Protein backbone atom coordinates (compact mmCIF):
# COMPACT_ATOMS: atom_id res chain seq x y z
CA UNK A 1 0.00 0.00 0.00
CA UNK A 2 1.29 3.44 -1.00
CA UNK A 3 -0.67 6.40 0.34
CA UNK A 4 0.86 8.73 -2.26
CA UNK A 5 0.70 8.44 -6.04
CA UNK A 6 3.87 10.52 -6.35
CA UNK A 7 7.38 9.03 -6.36
CA UNK A 8 10.18 10.04 -4.05
CA UNK A 9 12.72 12.22 -5.88
CA UNK A 10 16.43 11.64 -5.26
CA UNK A 11 18.65 14.54 -6.33
CA UNK A 12 22.08 13.30 -7.38
CA UNK A 13 23.27 10.01 -8.88
CA UNK A 14 26.43 9.51 -6.90
CA UNK A 15 26.83 6.34 -4.81
CA UNK A 16 24.71 7.62 -1.91
CA UNK A 17 21.91 8.77 -4.22
CA UNK A 18 21.89 5.50 -6.14
CA UNK A 19 22.00 3.35 -2.99
CA UNK A 20 19.21 5.42 -1.46
CA UNK A 21 17.13 4.86 -4.59
CA UNK A 22 17.85 1.12 -4.46
CA UNK A 23 16.69 1.13 -0.84
CA UNK A 24 13.41 2.75 -1.80
CA UNK A 25 12.92 0.25 -4.63
CA UNK A 26 13.65 -2.62 -2.21
CA UNK A 27 10.76 -1.33 -0.10
CA UNK A 28 8.50 -0.97 -3.17
CA UNK A 29 8.55 2.83 -3.03
CA UNK A 30 8.44 4.48 -6.48
CA UNK A 31 11.52 6.63 -7.04
CA UNK A 32 13.06 8.93 -9.66
CA UNK A 33 16.74 9.97 -9.55
CA UNK A 34 17.67 13.29 -11.13
CA UNK A 35 21.34 13.81 -12.09
CA UNK A 36 22.63 17.15 -13.36
CA UNK A 37 25.29 15.63 -15.60
CA UNK A 38 24.71 13.88 -18.89
CA UNK A 39 27.00 11.03 -17.77
CA UNK A 40 28.03 9.62 -14.42
CA UNK A 41 31.14 11.05 -12.80
CA UNK A 42 34.53 9.78 -13.98
CA UNK A 43 36.50 11.58 -11.24
CA UNK A 44 39.09 9.75 -9.17
CA UNK A 45 37.36 9.60 -5.79
CA UNK A 46 36.32 7.05 -3.12
CA UNK A 47 37.72 3.56 -3.46
CA UNK A 48 36.94 1.35 -0.43
CA UNK A 49 33.54 -0.06 0.54
CA UNK A 50 33.30 -1.14 4.17
CA UNK A 51 31.53 -4.13 5.69
CA UNK A 52 28.44 -2.25 6.88
CA UNK A 53 27.97 -0.87 3.36
CA UNK A 54 28.21 -4.41 2.00
CA UNK A 55 25.40 -5.39 4.37
CA UNK A 56 23.28 -2.49 3.12
CA UNK A 57 23.96 -3.42 -0.52
CA UNK A 58 22.96 -6.99 0.26
CA UNK A 59 19.72 -5.84 1.87
CA UNK A 60 18.94 -3.75 -1.21
CA UNK A 61 19.73 -6.57 -3.66
CA UNK A 62 22.83 -4.98 -5.23
CA UNK A 63 25.75 -6.75 -3.57
CA UNK A 64 26.43 -9.43 -6.20
CA UNK A 65 27.06 -7.04 -9.12
CA UNK A 66 29.28 -4.86 -6.89
CA UNK A 67 31.41 -7.82 -5.76
CA UNK A 68 31.93 -8.84 -9.39
CA UNK A 69 33.90 -5.65 -10.08
CA UNK A 70 35.62 -5.40 -6.69
CA UNK A 71 38.74 -6.67 -4.97
CA UNK A 72 38.05 -8.30 -1.59
CA UNK A 73 40.47 -8.02 1.32
CA UNK A 74 40.44 -9.22 4.90
CA UNK A 75 43.30 -7.12 6.31
CA UNK A 76 43.79 -3.42 6.94
CA UNK A 77 47.51 -2.96 7.50
CA UNK A 78 49.47 -0.31 9.33
CA UNK A 79 53.12 0.19 8.42
CA UNK A 80 55.83 2.45 9.77
CA UNK A 81 56.97 4.37 6.71
CA UNK A 82 60.48 5.04 7.99
CA UNK A 83 61.31 1.36 8.50
CA UNK A 84 58.80 -0.33 6.20
CA UNK A 85 57.82 -2.68 9.03
CA UNK A 86 54.30 -3.59 10.07
CA UNK A 87 52.96 -1.96 13.22
CA UNK A 88 49.88 -4.19 13.29
CA UNK A 89 46.93 -5.16 11.16
CA UNK A 90 43.19 -5.08 11.60
CA UNK A 91 42.17 -8.64 10.68
CA UNK A 92 38.57 -8.61 9.53
CA UNK A 93 38.28 -12.36 9.97
CA UNK A 94 37.68 -11.45 13.62
CA UNK A 95 34.17 -10.48 12.49
CA UNK A 96 33.28 -13.88 11.03
CA UNK A 97 30.72 -14.53 13.79
CA UNK A 98 29.32 -11.01 13.46
CA UNK A 99 28.57 -10.66 9.76
CA UNK A 100 28.33 -12.69 6.56
CA UNK A 101 30.87 -10.28 5.05
CA UNK A 102 34.04 -10.30 7.21
CA UNK A 103 35.94 -8.26 4.65
CA UNK A 104 35.94 -4.93 2.82
CA UNK A 105 36.26 -4.34 -0.91
CA UNK A 106 38.24 -1.95 -3.05
CA UNK A 107 36.46 -0.53 -6.10
CA UNK A 108 36.91 2.95 -7.59
CA UNK A 109 33.84 5.16 -7.33
CA UNK A 110 33.76 5.72 -11.09
CA UNK A 111 33.44 1.93 -11.52
CA UNK A 112 30.98 1.51 -8.65
CA UNK A 113 28.46 4.08 -9.89
CA UNK A 114 27.71 2.42 -13.27
CA UNK A 115 27.12 -0.90 -11.50
CA UNK A 116 24.65 0.68 -9.08
CA UNK A 117 22.98 2.56 -11.92
CA UNK A 118 22.67 -0.69 -13.87
CA UNK A 119 20.97 -2.47 -10.97
CA UNK A 120 18.59 0.48 -10.53
CA UNK A 121 17.71 0.46 -14.22
CA UNK A 122 16.88 -3.25 -14.01
CA UNK A 123 14.73 -2.86 -10.90
CA UNK A 124 13.08 0.43 -11.84
CA UNK A 125 13.37 1.10 -15.59
CA UNK A 126 13.40 4.81 -16.39
CA UNK A 127 14.05 5.86 -12.78
CA UNK A 128 17.46 7.41 -13.56
CA UNK A 129 17.16 10.65 -15.48
CA UNK A 130 20.42 12.22 -16.59
CA UNK A 131 20.77 15.86 -17.62
CA UNK A 132 18.25 17.11 -15.04
CA UNK A 133 19.78 19.82 -12.83
CA UNK A 134 17.75 20.98 -9.87
CA UNK A 135 17.06 24.71 -9.95
CA UNK A 136 14.59 25.14 -7.11
CA UNK A 137 11.71 23.48 -5.28
CA UNK A 138 8.48 24.47 -3.56
CA UNK A 139 7.01 22.43 -0.72
CA UNK A 140 3.31 21.74 -0.20
CA UNK A 141 1.40 19.92 2.50
CA UNK A 142 1.30 16.75 0.40
CA UNK A 143 4.43 16.96 -1.77
CA UNK A 144 7.29 18.89 -3.35
CA UNK A 145 7.31 20.58 -6.76
CA UNK A 146 10.78 20.42 -8.32
CA UNK A 147 12.03 22.79 -10.99
CA UNK A 148 14.69 21.16 -13.14
CA UNK A 149 16.85 22.49 -15.95
CA UNK A 150 17.11 20.18 -18.97
CA UNK A 151 18.24 20.48 -22.59
CA UNK A 152 14.59 21.20 -23.43
CA UNK A 153 14.29 23.97 -20.85
CA UNK A 154 12.82 24.12 -17.35
CA UNK A 155 10.51 21.27 -16.39
CA UNK A 156 8.49 20.65 -13.23
CA UNK A 157 8.12 17.38 -11.36
CA UNK A 158 5.75 16.50 -8.52
CA UNK A 159 7.31 14.33 -5.80
CA UNK A 160 6.11 12.98 -2.47
CA UNK A 161 9.49 13.79 -0.88
CA UNK A 162 12.82 15.15 -2.14
CA UNK A 163 16.13 13.68 -0.95
CA UNK A 164 19.22 15.81 -1.48
CA UNK A 165 22.11 13.49 -2.32
CA UNK A 166 23.83 16.13 -4.45
CA UNK A 167 27.21 16.30 -2.75
CA UNK A 168 29.32 18.86 -0.97
CA UNK A 169 28.07 21.75 -3.11
CA UNK A 170 24.46 20.70 -2.62
CA UNK A 171 21.81 22.84 -4.30
CA UNK A 172 19.20 21.26 -2.03
CA UNK A 173 21.13 22.33 1.07
CA UNK A 174 21.58 25.82 -0.33
CA UNK A 175 17.84 26.17 -1.01
CA UNK A 176 17.07 24.95 2.50
CA UNK A 177 19.35 27.65 3.90
CA UNK A 178 21.31 25.17 6.02
CA UNK A 179 24.83 26.09 7.17
CA UNK A 180 27.85 23.78 7.06
CA UNK A 181 29.30 24.04 10.57
CA UNK A 182 32.78 22.79 11.40
CA UNK A 183 36.23 23.37 9.98
CA UNK A 184 38.39 22.82 6.90
CA UNK A 185 41.95 21.55 7.14
CA UNK A 186 44.76 23.65 5.73
CA UNK A 187 46.32 20.47 4.44
CA UNK A 188 44.90 19.02 1.22
CA UNK A 189 45.07 15.40 0.07
CA UNK A 190 46.43 14.06 -3.22
CA UNK A 191 44.90 10.93 -4.69
CA UNK A 192 46.63 9.29 -7.66
CA UNK A 193 45.93 6.04 -9.53
CA UNK A 194 49.01 4.33 -10.92
CA UNK A 195 49.65 1.24 -13.02
CA UNK A 196 52.65 -0.58 -11.59
CA UNK A 197 53.45 -4.16 -10.63
CA UNK A 198 53.96 -4.59 -6.90
CA UNK A 199 52.87 -8.22 -6.89
CA UNK A 200 55.16 -10.13 -9.32
CA UNK A 201 57.96 -8.09 -10.91
CA UNK A 202 58.43 -5.85 -7.86
CA UNK A 203 56.79 -7.76 -5.00
CA UNK A 204 56.15 -5.62 -1.93
CA UNK A 205 53.62 -7.87 -0.14
CA UNK A 206 51.84 -4.95 1.44
CA UNK A 207 48.24 -5.47 2.58
CA UNK A 208 45.87 -4.35 -0.17
CA UNK A 209 44.78 -1.52 2.13
CA UNK A 210 47.83 -0.19 3.98
CA UNK A 211 48.37 2.95 6.03
CA UNK A 212 51.98 4.15 6.22
CA UNK A 213 52.37 6.34 9.30
CA UNK A 214 55.01 9.06 9.48
CA UNK A 215 55.40 12.36 11.37
CA UNK A 216 56.52 14.18 8.25
CA UNK A 217 54.50 12.65 5.42
CA UNK A 218 52.13 9.70 5.75
CA UNK A 219 50.73 7.70 2.84
CA UNK A 220 47.84 5.31 2.12
CA UNK A 221 48.30 2.51 -0.40
CA UNK A 222 45.20 0.90 -1.90
CA UNK A 223 45.22 -2.01 -4.32
CA UNK A 224 42.36 -1.44 -6.78
CA UNK A 225 41.23 -4.12 -9.25
CA UNK A 226 43.17 -2.54 -12.13
CA UNK A 227 45.72 -0.24 -10.50
CA UNK A 228 47.34 0.93 -7.28
CA UNK A 229 46.06 4.05 -5.55
CA UNK A 230 48.24 6.34 -3.47
CA UNK A 231 46.91 8.99 -1.09
CA UNK A 232 49.21 11.47 0.67
CA UNK A 233 48.98 14.98 2.16
CA UNK A 234 49.84 18.18 0.32
CA UNK A 235 51.25 20.96 2.47
CA UNK A 236 49.35 24.28 2.55
CA UNK A 237 50.25 26.51 -0.38
CA UNK A 238 51.91 23.76 -2.39
CA UNK A 239 50.85 23.64 -6.08
CA UNK A 240 49.17 20.56 -7.52
CA UNK A 241 51.88 18.01 -8.47
CA UNK A 242 52.55 17.21 -12.12
CA UNK A 243 52.32 13.68 -13.50
CA UNK A 244 56.10 13.34 -13.32
CA UNK A 245 56.13 14.50 -9.72
CA UNK A 246 53.41 12.03 -8.82
CA UNK A 247 55.37 9.23 -10.47
CA UNK A 248 58.51 10.22 -8.57
CA UNK A 249 56.58 10.44 -5.32
CA UNK A 250 55.25 6.93 -5.77
CA UNK A 251 58.76 5.60 -6.34
CA UNK A 252 59.87 7.50 -3.24
CA UNK A 253 57.25 5.66 -1.19
CA UNK A 254 57.58 2.11 -2.49
CA UNK A 255 61.11 2.06 -3.92
CA UNK A 256 62.31 1.85 -7.48
CA UNK A 257 60.04 -0.04 -9.85
CA UNK A 258 60.54 -0.56 -13.56
CA UNK A 259 57.33 0.92 -14.95
CA UNK A 260 54.89 3.42 -13.45
CA UNK A 261 52.01 4.93 -15.43
CA UNK A 262 49.84 7.72 -14.01
CA UNK A 263 46.20 6.98 -14.84
CA UNK A 264 44.50 9.84 -13.04
CA UNK A 265 44.83 12.08 -10.01
CA UNK A 266 42.81 14.42 -7.85
CA UNK A 267 43.69 17.06 -5.25
CA UNK A 268 40.88 17.73 -2.82
CA UNK A 269 40.16 19.88 0.19
CA UNK A 270 39.54 18.09 3.48
CA UNK A 271 36.64 19.03 5.73
CA UNK A 272 34.94 18.09 8.94
CA UNK A 273 31.64 19.93 8.49
CA UNK A 274 28.04 19.00 9.25
CA UNK A 275 24.87 20.73 8.02
CA UNK A 276 23.00 22.75 10.65
CA UNK A 277 19.75 21.08 9.61
CA UNK A 278 19.15 17.88 7.64
CA UNK A 279 15.44 18.25 7.03
CA UNK A 280 12.73 20.76 6.28
CA UNK A 281 9.32 19.06 6.16
CA UNK A 282 9.43 16.90 3.00
CA UNK A 283 13.03 17.62 1.98
CA UNK A 284 16.02 15.73 3.44
CA UNK A 285 19.82 15.84 3.12
CA UNK A 286 21.99 12.71 2.87
CA UNK A 287 25.66 11.95 2.30
CA UNK A 288 28.03 14.83 1.55
CA UNK A 289 25.06 17.20 1.34
CA UNK A 290 24.57 16.59 5.08
CA UNK A 291 28.15 16.02 6.24
CA UNK A 292 31.65 16.42 4.83
CA UNK A 293 33.85 13.90 6.64
CA UNK A 294 37.54 13.34 5.97
CA UNK A 295 37.73 10.27 3.70
CA UNK A 296 40.38 8.72 5.95
CA UNK A 297 39.68 5.11 6.89
CA UNK A 298 37.07 5.20 4.06
CA UNK A 299 34.73 7.31 6.19
CA UNK A 300 33.38 9.65 3.49
CA UNK A 301 31.25 7.48 1.19
CA UNK A 302 30.55 4.83 3.82
CA UNK A 303 29.15 7.30 6.34
CA UNK A 304 26.77 8.49 3.63
CA UNK A 305 25.59 4.92 3.09
CA UNK A 306 24.56 4.82 6.75
CA UNK A 307 22.15 7.65 5.88
CA UNK A 308 20.90 5.61 2.92
CA UNK A 309 20.30 2.71 5.32
CA UNK A 310 18.32 4.76 7.83
CA UNK A 311 15.87 6.83 5.77
CA UNK A 312 14.30 4.58 3.05
CA UNK A 313 12.49 2.19 5.41
CA UNK A 314 11.09 5.16 7.35
CA UNK A 315 9.69 6.67 4.16
CA UNK A 316 8.26 3.29 3.18
CA UNK A 317 6.44 2.90 6.50
CA UNK A 318 4.95 6.40 6.25
CA UNK A 319 3.96 6.05 2.59
CA UNK A 320 2.34 2.67 3.27
CA UNK A 321 0.29 4.18 6.08
CA UNK A 322 2.02 1.93 8.63
CA UNK A 323 3.55 4.86 10.54
CA UNK A 324 2.85 8.46 11.39
CA UNK A 325 4.98 11.17 9.79
CA UNK A 326 6.78 11.59 13.13
CA UNK A 327 8.77 8.44 12.35
CA UNK A 328 10.80 10.55 9.93
CA UNK A 329 12.13 12.68 12.79
CA UNK A 330 14.35 9.79 13.86
CA UNK A 331 16.53 10.06 10.75
CA UNK A 332 18.45 13.20 11.68
CA UNK A 333 18.27 12.45 15.40
CA UNK A 334 20.18 9.20 14.83
CA UNK A 335 22.46 10.02 11.91
CA UNK A 336 23.77 13.43 13.03
CA UNK A 337 25.58 11.98 16.09
CA UNK A 338 27.11 9.32 13.84
CA UNK A 339 28.54 12.00 11.55
CA UNK A 340 29.69 14.36 14.30
CA UNK A 341 30.90 11.97 16.98
CA UNK A 342 31.25 8.69 15.10
CA UNK A 343 32.88 9.18 11.74
CA UNK A 344 34.15 12.63 12.63
CA UNK A 345 35.91 11.37 15.75
CA UNK A 346 37.28 8.38 13.86
CA UNK A 347 38.69 10.67 11.17
CA UNK A 348 40.48 12.76 13.77
CA UNK A 349 41.85 9.56 15.33
CA UNK A 350 43.00 8.37 11.91
CA UNK A 351 44.95 11.56 11.28
CA UNK A 352 46.56 11.26 14.71
CA UNK A 353 47.61 7.67 14.00
CA UNK A 354 48.94 8.50 10.54
CA UNK A 355 51.04 11.43 11.80
CA UNK A 356 52.30 9.29 14.71
CA UNK A 357 50.60 11.44 17.35
CA UNK A 358 48.87 8.36 18.78
CA UNK A 359 48.81 4.60 18.44
CA UNK A 360 46.19 2.37 16.86
CA UNK A 361 44.97 -0.73 18.63
CA UNK A 362 44.32 -3.64 16.30
CA UNK A 363 41.77 -6.21 17.37
CA UNK A 364 38.05 -6.96 17.51
CA UNK A 365 37.10 -3.44 18.58
CA UNK A 366 39.22 -1.91 15.81
CA UNK A 367 37.75 -4.33 13.27
CA UNK A 368 34.24 -3.31 14.33
CA UNK A 369 34.84 0.43 14.16
CA UNK A 370 37.05 0.40 11.06
CA UNK A 371 34.24 -1.33 9.14
CA UNK A 372 31.46 0.82 10.70
CA UNK A 373 29.83 -2.24 12.24
CA UNK A 374 30.33 -0.78 15.69
CA UNK A 375 28.35 2.44 15.37
CA UNK A 376 25.49 2.60 17.85
CA UNK A 377 22.50 4.81 17.05
CA UNK A 378 20.46 6.96 19.38
CA UNK A 379 20.94 9.60 22.04
CA UNK A 380 23.23 7.31 24.04
CA UNK A 381 25.73 7.32 21.19
CA UNK A 382 28.87 5.24 21.41
CA UNK A 383 31.27 3.17 19.38
CA UNK A 384 31.74 -0.55 19.91
CA UNK A 385 30.82 -1.73 23.36
CA UNK A 386 31.00 -5.07 25.13
CA UNK A 387 28.26 -7.19 26.63
CA UNK A 388 24.89 -8.23 25.18
CA UNK A 389 23.57 -6.07 22.30
CA UNK A 390 21.41 -3.16 23.45
CA UNK A 391 18.96 -0.67 21.98
CA UNK A 392 20.58 1.26 19.12
CA UNK A 393 23.16 -1.42 18.36
CA UNK A 394 23.34 -3.07 14.99
CA UNK A 395 22.24 -6.63 15.64
CA UNK A 396 24.82 -9.33 14.91
CA UNK A 397 23.86 -11.16 11.72
CA UNK A 398 23.57 -14.56 13.38
CA UNK A 399 22.46 -17.72 11.61
CA UNK A 400 19.33 -19.68 12.48
CA UNK A 401 17.48 -22.42 10.61
CA UNK A 402 14.02 -22.04 9.14
CA UNK A 403 11.84 -24.73 7.55
CA UNK A 404 13.95 -24.75 4.38
CA UNK A 405 17.42 -24.29 5.76
CA UNK A 406 19.77 -21.61 7.11
CA UNK A 407 18.83 -17.96 7.18
CA UNK A 408 20.38 -14.96 8.91
CA UNK A 409 18.76 -12.40 11.17
CA UNK A 410 19.38 -9.51 8.78
CA UNK A 411 17.58 -11.43 6.04
CA UNK A 412 14.56 -12.03 8.27
CA UNK A 413 14.03 -8.33 9.05
CA UNK A 414 14.67 -6.79 5.63
CA UNK A 415 11.15 -5.37 5.23
CA UNK A 416 9.63 -5.78 8.66
CA UNK A 417 10.10 -5.10 12.35
CA UNK A 418 11.03 -8.52 13.72
CA UNK A 419 10.54 -9.60 17.34
CA UNK A 420 12.77 -12.51 18.37
CA UNK A 421 11.42 -14.39 21.39
CA UNK A 422 14.47 -16.20 22.74
CA UNK A 423 12.87 -18.85 24.90
CA UNK A 424 12.05 -22.55 25.13
CA UNK A 425 9.93 -23.51 22.13
CA UNK A 426 8.88 -26.76 23.84
CA UNK A 427 6.54 -24.71 26.03
CA UNK A 428 4.72 -23.45 22.92
CA UNK A 429 4.83 -19.76 23.88
CA UNK A 430 1.84 -17.85 22.57
CA UNK A 431 2.36 -15.50 19.63
CA UNK A 432 -0.53 -13.52 18.10
CA UNK A 433 -1.59 -13.94 14.49
CA UNK A 434 -2.96 -10.43 14.12
CA UNK A 435 -0.01 -8.14 14.67
CA UNK A 436 -0.18 -4.67 13.09
CA UNK A 437 1.21 -4.25 9.58
CA UNK A 438 4.99 -4.10 9.55
CA UNK A 439 5.52 -6.29 12.62
CA UNK A 440 6.35 -10.01 12.77
CA UNK A 441 6.99 -12.05 15.92
CA UNK A 442 8.86 -15.39 15.98
CA UNK A 443 10.36 -17.78 18.50
CA UNK A 444 14.07 -18.65 18.34
CA UNK A 445 15.05 -21.77 20.27
CA UNK A 446 17.42 -24.73 20.34
CA UNK A 447 14.24 -26.82 20.59
CA UNK A 448 12.57 -27.19 17.22
CA UNK A 449 8.84 -26.47 17.01
CA UNK A 450 6.23 -25.08 14.58
CA UNK A 451 6.66 -21.34 13.85
CA UNK A 452 10.06 -21.43 15.56
CA UNK A 453 13.52 -20.82 14.14
CA UNK A 454 15.99 -23.47 15.17
CA UNK A 455 19.08 -22.17 17.03
CA UNK A 456 21.59 -25.06 17.40
CA UNK A 457 23.63 -24.72 20.55
CA UNK A 458 21.62 -21.69 21.72
CA UNK A 459 24.03 -19.42 19.80
CA UNK A 460 21.54 -16.56 19.48
CA UNK A 461 20.34 -16.78 23.07
CA UNK A 462 23.94 -16.96 24.28
CA UNK A 463 24.58 -13.65 22.51
CA UNK A 464 21.42 -11.81 23.57
CA UNK A 465 20.27 -13.59 26.73
CA UNK A 466 16.76 -14.90 27.49
CA UNK A 467 15.01 -11.83 26.17
CA UNK A 468 12.70 -10.61 23.48
CA UNK A 469 14.51 -8.31 21.07
CA UNK A 470 12.82 -6.12 18.46
CA UNK A 471 14.81 -5.53 15.26
CA UNK A 472 14.12 -2.74 12.79
CA UNK A 473 14.28 -3.20 9.00
CA UNK A 474 17.81 -1.75 9.04
CA UNK A 475 18.85 -4.44 11.57
CA UNK A 476 19.27 -2.01 14.47
CA UNK A 477 17.76 -2.97 17.80
CA UNK A 478 14.62 -1.02 18.76
CA UNK A 479 13.76 -2.73 22.04
CA UNK A 480 15.05 -5.40 24.46
CA UNK A 481 13.40 -6.77 27.60
CA UNK A 482 13.53 -9.98 29.66
CA UNK A 483 11.26 -12.60 28.13
CA UNK A 484 7.91 -13.39 29.79
CA UNK A 485 4.78 -15.11 28.57
CA UNK A 486 3.24 -11.69 27.87
CA UNK A 487 6.22 -10.20 26.04
CA UNK A 488 4.24 -10.31 22.80
CA UNK A 489 1.99 -7.59 24.20
CA UNK A 490 4.82 -5.26 25.23
CA UNK A 491 6.55 -5.82 21.90
CA UNK A 492 3.39 -4.83 20.05
CA UNK A 493 3.04 -1.71 22.21
CA UNK A 494 6.69 -0.83 21.68
CA UNK A 495 6.36 -1.23 17.93
CA UNK A 496 3.37 1.13 17.83
CA UNK A 497 5.41 3.64 19.83
CA UNK A 498 8.35 3.28 17.44
CA UNK A 499 6.19 4.07 14.43
CA UNK A 500 4.42 6.89 16.31
CA UNK A 501 0.96 5.35 16.16
CA UNK A 502 0.59 5.17 19.93
CA UNK A 503 2.11 6.81 22.98
Automatic annotation (TrEMBL):
Superkingdom of the organism of origin: Bacteria
GO molecular function: FAD binding; oxidoreductase activity, acting on paired donors, with incorporation or reduction of molecular oxygen, NAD(P)H as one donor, and incorporation of one atom of oxygen
Residue ranges occupied by any FAD-binding domain in the UniProt entry: 7-339
Essential cofactor(s): FAD
Pfam family, one: FAD_binding_3
Keyword list, A-Z: FAD, Flavoprotein
Keyword Flavoprotein: yes
PANTHER family from the UniProt entry: BINDING MONOOXYGENASE, PUTATIVE (JCVI)-RELATED, TRK SYSTEM POTASSIUM UPTAKE PROTEIN
Name the record gives this protein: 3-(3-hydroxy-phenyl)propionate hydroxylase
Species the sequence originates in: Lentzea albida
Amino acid sequence: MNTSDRPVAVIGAGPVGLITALGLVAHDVPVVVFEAGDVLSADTRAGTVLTRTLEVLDRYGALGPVLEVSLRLDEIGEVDRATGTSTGSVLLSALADETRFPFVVNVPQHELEPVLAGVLSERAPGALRMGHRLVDFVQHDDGVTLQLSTSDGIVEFEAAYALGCDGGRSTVRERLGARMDGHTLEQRYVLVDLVCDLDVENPRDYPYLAYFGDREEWMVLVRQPHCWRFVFPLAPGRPEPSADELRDRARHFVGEVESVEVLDSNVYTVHHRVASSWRDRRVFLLGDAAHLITPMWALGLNTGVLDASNLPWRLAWVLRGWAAAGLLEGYEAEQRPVAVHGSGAMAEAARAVMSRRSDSVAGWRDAMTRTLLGVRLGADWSMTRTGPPQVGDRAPDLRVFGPRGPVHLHELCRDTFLALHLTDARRRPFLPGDDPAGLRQVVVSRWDAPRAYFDPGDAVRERFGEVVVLLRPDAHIAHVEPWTATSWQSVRARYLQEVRLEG
